[in-house]
Write a structure and sequence with these properties.
Layout: E1 2-7, H1 11-27, E2 32-37, H2 40-48, E3 56-60, H3 68-78, E4 83-87
Parallel strand pairs: 1-2, 1-3, 3-4
Helix pairs in contact: 2-3
Length: about 90
């Protein structure tokens, strides 16, 4: 099972990526779990507390609160090999 996280402070961006992933996995059947975060701090807290373990994280660079790069550095302390795809809109 593939564990995927989306971390973006904009609901519309999370929804767009979530829709894309649902569509992709409908066409390419593979078991997955999708978790959404609206703040980098929450993602990092879940890793620190042992509640999170993902195979792939889609992470907005410009988040409210801590920035995506800072969140990624913190996550890497707990999951050095997790795949992180950085996203942003201008």
């Amino acid at each position: 099972m593939l564990r995927i996280a989306i971390c973006d402070d904009l609901p519309s961006e999370r929804e767009m990526l979530s829709r894309f992933l649902r569509s992709y996995f409908a066409a390419h059947p593979y078991e997955y779990v999708l978790t959404e975060y609206d703040r980098g701090e929450t993602l990092v807290d879940d890793y620190e507390d042992g509640f999170a373990s993902f195979d792939l994280i889609f992470l907005d660079i410009f988040l409210d609160g801590i920035l995506g790069m800072e969140a990624a550095r913190s996550v890497r302390r707990f999951a050095p090999r997790v795949l992180i795809v950085f996203l942003t809109t201008t």
